[in-house]
């Protein structure tokens, strides 16, 4: 039993519409992924400023910043971890906003990001040695508190490494853009130099 022409045309329309929908979704996903890659330094800085603070809020009772600073102890207080993350993300975000293409490629953006991230990693590692050098107090609550502390230190360290990776990828991307731009300028300048010579040769041939 064969299909009629109307059924075949309707099936083709359905498949063509489905294929256009798949291509549209793929293009939108590609655009969204490209937007995430381009805006990765901004999103990472926002995450660096918010995530450690949210973890500290789960660890400590709701108190203001002044009380944390007045009762600060390097071996026990954790307020400096989110403060370091906020300062680190603010400095990196300001440098990223002030830099253009050449400075993003091999200028102060990558250098300052690496300095801020590596110095904060060293500080967090030293603090972790003091904090986790003491045994946990209690069984259930102490274990939960210690796991939350580990999550806070890991979050800050991973975000610091993430800043370095994102800055390096951004630098490589900007270098590729500058290389392509340089090639285009050289091609245009070469054409400008060749075109007058070509016109001169044509005039000479016409005179002959």
Automatic annotation (TrEMBL):
<keyword id="KW-0472">Membrane</keyword>
<keyword id="KW-0812">Transmembrane</keyword>
<feature type="transmembrane region" description="Helical">
    <location>
        <begin position="110"/>
        <end position="130"/>
    </location>
</feature>
<feature type="transmembrane region" description="Helical">
    <location>
        <begin position="78"/>
        <end position="98"/>
    </location>
</feature>
<feature type="transmembrane region" description="Helical">
    <location>
        <begin position="150"/>
        <end position="168"/>
    </location>
</feature>
<keyword id="KW-1133">Transmembrane helix</keyword>
<protein>
    <recommendedName>
        <fullName>MENTAL domain-containing protein</fullName>
    </recommendedName>
</protein>
<feature type="transmembrane region" description="Helical">
    <location>
        <begin position="21"/>
        <end position="46"/>
    </location>
</feature>
